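User: Structure tokens for this complex, please. No commentary.
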Amino acid sequence: MSLFLNECYTQMNQGEVIVAYKGCINADIISNTLNLIESKLDESVPNTPVRKKLYNVLVESLQNLFHHVDIPPDLDTECESNFGVFILSKVDSSFRIATGNFIKNSKAPILKEKIDKINSLSKEELKDFYKFVLNNQTFSEKGGGGLGLIDIARKTGNRLDYNFYDYSPEYSFFNMTVLINE
Amino acid sequence: MELINIEGTPKTPTVIMNPTTGVVEIKGRSIPENSIEFYKPVVDWLDEYSSNPAPKTVVNMQLEYFNTSSSKCILDVFKKLEQIKQASADVVINWYYEEDDEDMLEAGEDYESIIKVPFKMIEIVD
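Assistant:
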């Protein structure tokens, strides 16, 4: 894998890593990852509401990688469909979920605007925004409902931190990190 | 009309829909990547059922997890139930949530505020 990706991966890799993955993302990989993490969480997170919240955010994060990903044509990968990076770690008293994927630069401003909007909203405003999108927006062609990021922000109660790393004139690597407090 | 009985999987819920008793049960996890495909037969069944519903329809929603892709489909299910209620049949939605699962309770309250059908919030205590 390219030096570029290794650098991004290193930057995302913080804290005590529970699961880290870099590679193709498909429905089977998502299922297997969720099964693996669930069995680890059953042992290590006794608090059920926290465990459920964490699991919910994991599902949304992984499925974002499934639904909203572009692949640069020059990327050296065996993946037929999606390529993504996913790291779950423990940092102090929080769980940290970092995801990374390539995105066409043309789509970056819309994504940035959406995350900035979500980060600017209060808890009540997020709830209203969620209900508005739920009730008014149709599915995208890939089946995403446009609710994933809003849901992650609501469930964690924390900011969605993000970075766009320049990859080429047409593509960037998008990294998003969220914390779930224990 | 036929009874629907879909067995649950790690990513999709158990669905039982009985046209005679009017009892609809959706239980388990709903986290498929493509939820439209999964919920299509459920929504189609309600569509047909709405032309001749039982005097009382009771819906038991007992989800452990659901993803945002499912949340739109669940709203579609509830909108069908709203139509059945508007056609003057009795409809009740029982929304189950596990003890201390405030996210799931809140999710039920979100739907309750959108749909004109009474919800009963039921906490499952171990």
